[in-house]
Design a protein that fits this description.
The chain is an all-alpha fold. Helix content is about 60%, strand content about 0%. The chain has a single domain, classed as Up-down Bundle (Ferritin), CATH 1.20.1260.10. It has seven helices and one strand, in the order H-H-E-H-H-H-H-H.
Length: about 210
């Protein structure tokens, strides 16, 4: 995955969160699960940005979904890369981090391609006041302070922190994905949202099981 997604500025993420808060979607969903080949970004099955449907009609929900999910996925990839750089991490947790990174990178590229083909910005516009948008928005994002804790942790402590943070991260993505499923118009985007829900709900169960064993 390209570094530009992993180095999204705090302002860009804040702007994305702000746009997310404007969503009128029925987002009571969670954030993707991890079906084979899919994690919070696991989407080997995600439609390619060059697919005919990618240029089909779209609405504001499709745009918001892609603009929010790109930085959300990017953080999941960054967290996974942190884990893969550590020593003495349980093999099952390392395997999970590998899967998340491999799946979400391509999904970021796919969603970026959609936005480009729709002539929409790949980042959410600024100027939205999150305080006026209730509890909606891009949930599950890990704070800078908690990212630093994960970066500094090692071994089993790092594994527990990663799993705990990623479960919440997935739950937030599922909410966004379910909002797109009910409110989106573009067939590729709606399909990806459904894939994320299926994949990340399964992955949450996997992570909860791993966490219970540590």
């Amino acid at each position: 995955m390209t570094k530009k997604f992993l180095t999204l500025s705090a302002a860009a993420v804040a702007a994305t969160l702000a746009l997310a808060g404007c969503s009128t979607g029925s987002g009571t969903g969670s954030a993707g699960t991890s079906t084979p080949g899919m994690d919070h970004g696991n989407s080997s099955s995600a439609p390619a940005s060059s697919s005919p449907a990618a240029a089909a009609e779209h609405n504001a929900a499709d745009v918001m979904f892609a603009q929010m999910m790109i930085p959300h996925h990017a953080q999941a990839v960054e967290m996974s890369e942190m884990m893969l750089a550590k020593k003495d991490v349980p093999a099952e947790v390392t395997a999970l981090a590998t899967k998340i990174k491999a799946a979400q990178g391509p999904e970021i590229e796919t969603m970026t391609g959609w936005l480009t083909s729709w002539n929409e910005p790949t980042q959410a516009p600024t100027g939205h006041d999150m305080s006026t948008h209730g509890a909606g928005g891009m949930g599950g994002m890990v704070s800078d302070a908690d990212m630093k804790k994960l970066d500094a942790a090692q071994g089993t402590e790092a594994a527990k922190l990663f799993l705990t943070q990623m479960i919440a991260h997935h739950e937030g993505a599922i909410v966004m994905a379910k909002t797109e499923t009910t409110g989106g118009k573009n067939p590729d985007a709606v399909k990806l949202s459904k894939d994320i829900v299926t994949a990340q709900e399964a992955e949450i169960q996997e992570m909860q099981a791993l966490l219970a064993k540590l």
